[in-house]
C-alpha cells in the first residue's frame, strides 16, 4: 500500500502538466480583428493607419468592454468624407492631413469643425484648445505656432476707451452684442480693456506668414484663411508603456481600455498576448481555430499503476 501511494504522488505533477496543456495557453485569448486598422484606409483624401482607430470599432478584450486597438485620444470618425477627431472628448476637429514617419506619427493637422462648417464668411470659435489629462497629443517641439485671440461682445463704458490703433471686425455674431476683435496674440494691446468683453478664446495657428489685422480684408473675415490652415499636433511617444513598445516590436497592435490602460498585445492572427506576439501569431490564419484546446484525455491512475 505505501508503494502504491508513493507512485501516485510521483504521478500527480505529471497529471497537472497534462491537464494544463489540455487547456491551451492562458495568454492566448482571441479578439475580433475587425477592430484594428489592418491596412491603411482613406477618408476623403486623408490616409488613416494604426495607431488611429475608428471610434465605432470598440470591442471586448480579455473581459474589458469597449476596448480599442490604438492609442488613447486617437479615436476618429469618417463623416461625409471628412475625418473628424475629438479633443478632450468634446470638441470636434477636421483632420487636414496626417504625416507618418518610421512607424510613428510625425504630426497631425487639425481645424476647428465650426470654422470648416462656417458659411457666413466670418468664422468664430466658442472654446479654447484643451487636452485631457494625460493626453497623448501635444504641440510639436520646434514648430512655429501663433495664436489668434477672439475678443467677443465687447462693450466699453463712457469713461473707458477701446484700445487705439485697432479696429473691430465688421462681423456680427448671434447672441453677442457689442464689438468683437480678432488679433494675433503678439499684437494684443496691453491694458485691462479685455475685461469689458463677454468671451475671450485663443486658437493656435501655424505662422506661415505675417498676419496684418489692420486691413479691411482681415476685418471682413479674412482671418478665417489663417484659421483654415489649421494647427499641428504630435503624438507624445513618451506616454507609450513598455509593454506596448514590446508589442509593436513583435508586429502586434496595442489594445487599451477606456481607462487608457494597456491590456493586451493584439496579434495579426486574432490572438491576444500579454506582451509580445509569437512567430506563429503573425499569420492571417484564424486564431479561433488554433486557440481551441486539444481534445481532453482522461487518465486513470489505476490504469497507469497497473501498467507499471
TrEMBL record:
Principal cellular location given in the protein's record: membrane
Membrane topology: Single-pass membrane protein
Pfam families recorded: GUB_WAK_bind, WAK_assoc
GO molecular function: polysaccharide binding
UniProt xrefs under InterPro entries: WAK_assoc_C, WAK_GUB
Signal peptide range in chain numbering: 1-26
Domain (Wall-associated receptor kinase C-terminal) ranges: 179-269
Location(s) in or outside the cell: Membrane
A cellular component term, taken from the record's GO annotations: membrane
Key words of the record: Glycoprotein, Signal
Residues annotated as domain Wall-associated receptor kinase galacturonan-binding: 40-106
Protein name stated in the entry: Wall-associated receptor kinase galacturonan-binding domain-containing protein
Amino acid at each position: 500500500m505505501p508503494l502504491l501511494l508513493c507512485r501516485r504522488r510521483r504521478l500527480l505533477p505529471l497529471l497537472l502538466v497534462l491537464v494544463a496543456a489540455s487547456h491551451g495557453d492562458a495568454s492566448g485569448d482571441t479578439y475580433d480583428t475587425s477592430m484594428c486598422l489592418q491596412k491603411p484606409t482613406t477618408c476623403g483624401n486623408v490616409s488613416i493607419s494604426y495607431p488611429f482607430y475608428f471610434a465605432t470599432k470598440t470591442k471586448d478584450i480579455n473581459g474589458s468592454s469597449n476596448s480599442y486597438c490604438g492609442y488613447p485620444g486617437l479615436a476618429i470618425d469618417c463623416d461625409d468624407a471628412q475625418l473628424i477627431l475629438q479633443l478632450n472628448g468634446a470638441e470636434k476637429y477636421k483632420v487636414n492631413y496626417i504625416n507618418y514617419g518610421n512607424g510613428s506619427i510625425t504630426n497631425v493637422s487639425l481645424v476647428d469643425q465650426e470654422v470648416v462648417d462656417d458659411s457666413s464668411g466670418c468664422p468664430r470659435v466658442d472654446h479654447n484648445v484643451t487636452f485631457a489629462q494625460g493626453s497623448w497629443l501635444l504641440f510639436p517641439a520646434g514648430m512655429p505656432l501663433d495664436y489668434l485671440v477672439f475678443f467677443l461682445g465687447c462693450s466699453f463704458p463712457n469713461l473707458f476707451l477701446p484700445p487705439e490703433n485697432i479696429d473691430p471686425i465688421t462681423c456680427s455674431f448671434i447672441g453677442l452684442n457689442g464689438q468683437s476683435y480678432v488679433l494675433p496674440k503678439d499684437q494684443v494691446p496691453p491694458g485691462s480693456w479685455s475685461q469689458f468683453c463677454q468671451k475671450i478664446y485663443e486658437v493656435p495657428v501655424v505662422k506661415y506668414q505675417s498676419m496684418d489685422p489692420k486691413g479691411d480684408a482681415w476685418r471682413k473675415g479674412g482671418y478665417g484663411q489663417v484659421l483654415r490652415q489649421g494647427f499641428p499636433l504630435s503624438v507624445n511617444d513618451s506616454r507609450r508603456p513598455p509593454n506596448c513598445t514590446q508589442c509593436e516590436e513583435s508586429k502586434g497592435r496595442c489594445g487599451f481600455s477606456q481607462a487608457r490602460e494597456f491590456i493586451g498585445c493584439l496579434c495579426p492572427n486574432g490572438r491576444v498576448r500579454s506582451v509580445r506576439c509569437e512567430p506563429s501569431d503573425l499569420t492571417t490564419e484564424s486564431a479561433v481555430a488554433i486557440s481551441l484546446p486539444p481534445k481532453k484525455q482522461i487518465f486513470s491512475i489505476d490504469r497507469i499503476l497497473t501498467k507499471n
